[in-house]
Amino acid sequence: MIVLGLTGSIGMGKSTSAQMFIDEGIPVYSADETVHRLYSGAAAPLIEAAFPGTTVDGKVDRTKLSAAVMGNPVALKKLEAIIHPLVRAEENRFRDGARASGAKLVVVDIPLLFETGAEDRVDKILVVTAPEEVQRKRVLERPGMTSDKLDAILARQTPDAEKRARADFIIDTRHNFDVTRDEIRRIISVLTV
Known about the structure:
The protein is α/β, with parallel strands linked by helices. 53% of the residues lie in helices and 15% in strands. It has a five-stranded parallel beta sheet, with helices on both faces. A two-stranded antiparallel ribbon has the order 3-4. 30% of the residues are buried.
């Protein structure tokens, strides 16, 4: 089974690309979706214990948690020490299930693939990218997003140029969905021959 790591900076089109793999019948694991589930379940009491007042009704309040860790590297490391092992365990369950079902190719969508050392857990890497002005426009259209927030997020991420230099495959998502879908189909055909 080939494990394709899907990554890219915020606003580059990871979620759309991941959905296109799903549409082609390829199993996809999403680290972001896992974090969302964990924030409503197993991680919530652990995060509340570490960051009192960041949960509401047993679920992590992302705004409160963000306020507690943004700009605080020590707090961010503390949060990562809680959440990363839980996310990794879910990823391992996904991989085991896909392998047992006979999947030839799976995609693991990990936004912080390089930042967390996850490139050692994949066979190939796909980076989705777009010009900076396209990225900023996409991200700043999100509710509650500001230029300062975006800059803080980007400061924690490996620069796009470095990600592209370390990739096996690159898809520029500035084009229409059909171009992206064709590129994804090409990658699938290369990896499942």
